[in-house]
Design goal:
- The complex is a heterodimer of chains A (266) and B (556).
- Chain A is mainly alpha-helical and 266 residues long.
- Chain A has ten helices and no strands.
- In chain A, helix 3 packs parallel to helix 10 and helix 6 runs antiparallel to helix 8.
- In chain B, a hairpin with a 7-residue loop joins strand 12 and strand 13.
- In chain B, helix 6 packs parallel to helix 9 and helix 13 packs across helix 20.
- The chains are: A mainly alpha (266), B alpha/beta (556).
Amino acid sequence: MRRITAVEAASGTVLLALAVAALAPNLIAPGDPLAINPLASFQPPSFAHLLGTDESGRDLLTRIVHGTAPSLLIGVAATVIGIGLGALLGVAGGLGPRWVDSGTTRLVEVLFAFPGLLLALLFIAVAGPGPLTSTVAVGLATAPGYARLIRSQVLSVRRSGYVESAVVLGRGWWRRLTRHIAPNVTSTLFVLVTLGVGQSIVWASSLSYLGLGVSPPAAEWGAMLNSGRTYIGSFWWMTFFPGLAIVLSAASTTLLGRSIQNRVRT
Amino acid sequence: MAGVSLGPTASPSPALPPQEAANAAAHTTASPVVQVSGLTIRFGAMDAPAAVDGISLSINAGETLALVGESGSGKSVTARALVSLLGGGATVTADVLRVAGLDIPKLGRRQLEKLRGATVGTITQDALSSLDPLRLVGREVDDALRLHTSLSALQRRTRVLELLAEAGIPDPRVRAAQRSGELSGGLRQRALIAAALAANPKLLVADEPTTALDAQVRNGILDLIKRQADTGMAVLLISHDLGAVARVADRVAVMTDGRIVEEGPTARVLEAPAHEYTRRLLAASPAGKPRHQALLAGITAGTPTSGTASAVPRPPASTHPRPQSVSATGSPSTPPALQARGIAVSFTSRGEAPRTVLSGLDFNLPEGTTLGLVGPSGSGKTTLARIALGLQKPDAGELLLLGEKWSSLPETQRRPRRGLIGAIYQDPMASFDPRFTVAQLLTDSITHGASTRSSAVRPRVRELLDSVGLESTLAARRPRTLSGGQRQRVAIARALGAEPRVLVLDEPVSALDVTIQAQVLDLLDSLQRDLTLSYLFISHDSDVIEHMSDTVLRLD
């Protein structure tokens, strides 16, 4: 086993902090994220308000910490939906008869033709805005990519020498699937998940920013970005810190995913 | 350091052995084409173990020196040092390193480029990767002429055709306009030789030139190389194939662990080897060894003999009356292990006429015997193996397993009987699930797929490892941490776990070194006798086939 690198240590620390913020926000920021204080609006970062305050005098640090759970939840849930759908299509294509494979492959290609965000907007236009629909929308938008990767992985495992020797040893298709194909495909899926969460967090925040996901005054990073947008010229901290939170969480999950990928490969 | 490498048993200083000096005089050349002494090559740090450790050798014009040894012995590295192709990671030191009078370490880049190709021609094992798949064969040969001669385009065109014809390629005009992928393995190797010889080099380096080829093609290539030496070229032949060496080499140098342990005239070294390692290498070769003769008998120190705890070795005579002819054993009451009746297979690709691979094939494999399957690539050996393993159906005819229907069964009825026939492949790694340890692989096989972790079969796992000569401590390891020979033993143990009656062995020893190959062949032979196994044995190596088979079936 190689030693832990600086990148791995740093992204691990960020993820740990995010986990604490998501599960027990009051440990870090005991205040109320929705408590307004008009007298203290637009305060720059100071000892009283480490990251400053917004237009209603709400403490930004408190809001960012309390916003971790909804922001990450949307990212993780969207990834789960995307990979779940992708796995369904990919496994059906990789294992099923030829007509199923060509059917799913065509479907995935059509979905691919749309930019992911456009697909998500299309879904929201039909289902109406809200945190749930934006989660599903991001999941839908990312599914085609996963479907394609999973299908090729399933195919390569299915045609591998060890699955063939399982046939020669007399193993039925159920045993080949559960003992060889599924475990070998999931071990690569795990890496995909860690890489995908970062992407989904960004996308979910984008939808909230557009006002299609979580809506104000709830504390969510994308929504906070949106409310700070009006004041970006004068009060930079209102957009900078929520943006930093999005970048840090997306970057650290992605970097950790990369290094896991490298370790698995070697 | 240089002197140390030559053991007391080796011939005197290689610079001027009396007999070779006489040979050289016949070709009237003053100094040897290749002169090497005290050559040491290291990779990485200066204190790393030397890949080549102070060797000395010389080759005269018109002489063929064979460098023999197993993988990792340093023979290919030595050859690459002659043309300074080792790359930046290598440290090369030598007292003398001269080719055709040129001091190799002192040459600049331009001079080295001239050396390669013009002065030294090189043939490698894998002609497919040495030839550019996108370029015409004629262009490949033409390159050497264009770079290293002053011929005009027209002269070169006729010369290319001459060279291809000299290399034994029929229809050179047609072949020159094809790409390497359209040529068979043998023709590709010949085209590579034509390119290597184009600039009329003084030294030809042939690094395992025949390894991937079947016997007939192999002999043709060797004769072609031999003809070059007869015209006065110096040849360095690198091979682990002692048959090839005996055919073409004047002198043999035996290498192991980066040192030359023995050197001398071919006949002397092969018939009266002085060094222990040479003796072992010779013993390991299956060439000319009768069936059931253990290759490594008496020299198997450290190699556990098989049939230890798992099976009681029966005297071979009782079960095995040494069948020599096609009319093999098997009393009429016991059905043959495998029986083929008129098997035919052809492949159709869109827009082309169907290509017949097998047509009307009949054979019998009596219980407890081996049917050897030889033939050039594309002759249907592997197709037949796949039919035997129930992975493919023949277009016509059928295959019976132990007297009962097999190839014609639907999969659901075949599956319960699949344990009766097992498979061993050339590359065992590909047939192991990468997540499994040795113990899990064996447990899966023993329990017929019921479990991979059952502790109830642990004694049986140990027994199987023991029967293939592996330590039971290996059970916890993953195959990728094992050596090639160990992996193949694990593959054999796994096949045995399902208690098969027939094994299909598809090139089982082709990727192994000679001594490891001998160990695996000895193991297979004793397992066959102990467990009355029947083998369908596929190999392109006719020596291996002759040694292992009771009956030989040639496909072409």
